[in-house]
Design goal:
Number of helices: 7
Helix content: 55-70%
Largest sheet: none
Radius of gyration: 25 Å
Oligomer: single chain
Low-confidence stretches: none
Shape: elongated
Distance between the termini: 38 Å
Length: 173
């Protein structure tokens, strides 16, 4: 869609106003049904006084809101269908507690959250992997060699999350 040639209308595709409306529609702040909150009321109550909407013409807001509501209704309907399909599939094929080799699945066990807590406390730096595994009963069902790699995996996860937070914050790496 090319930028509008109408006088007073902004380039909607790259505007902050579009992002705000889409976020509000997807979060449920702004109803996807125009009958619940017409465009004129939404404009007067919420958007007219926002900095991002100062240069937006009301007619452009009204037209784009209509389009975005249609898109949001389609997204909501698709999300509902996908959620129902997943629930149906989980009823037919529930998550298994053991894998095909008869070993317990680490992701669904309490040991996963306990290991996160232990790594956060720094226990993995004070003990060997074997000592850490013998420290809690919940860790015993897992193979020692594989559990060691679970510890390393959790340390990598913590480092990655830290890196993401630094990157989002604008800090230099």
């Amino acid at each position: 869609m090319p930028p509008s040639t109408r006088e007073g209308w902004i380039d909607w595709r790259n505007s902050a106003a579009k992002e705000i409306i889409m976020d509000d529609l997807h979060c449920g702040i702004l109803p996807a049904d125009a009958a619940e909150l017409p465009a004129s009321e939404a404009w007067d109550l919420c958007y007219r006084h926002m900095v991002e909407f100062v240069s937006v013409d009301y007619e452009q807001f009204r037209d784009r809101l209509r389009d975005h509501r249609l898109q949001a209704r389609k997204d909501i309907a698709r999300a509902k269908i996908e959620s129902d399909s997943l629930a149906h599939d989980r009823l037919l094929f529930p998550r298994q507690a053991v894998n095909n080799r008869g070993e317990p699945v680490f992701d669904t066990s309490d040991a996963k959250l306990l290991l996160r807590a232990d790594v956060k406390e720094g226990k993995h730096n004070e003990m060997t992997p074997a000592e850490l595994q013998s420290d809690r009963v919940e860790y015993h069902p897992f193979n020692a060699r594989k559990f060691k790699h679970r510890i390393y995996q959790e340390v990598r996860r913590v480092k990655f999350i830290n890196w993401l937070e630094q990157k989002r914050g604008g800090a230099e790496l």
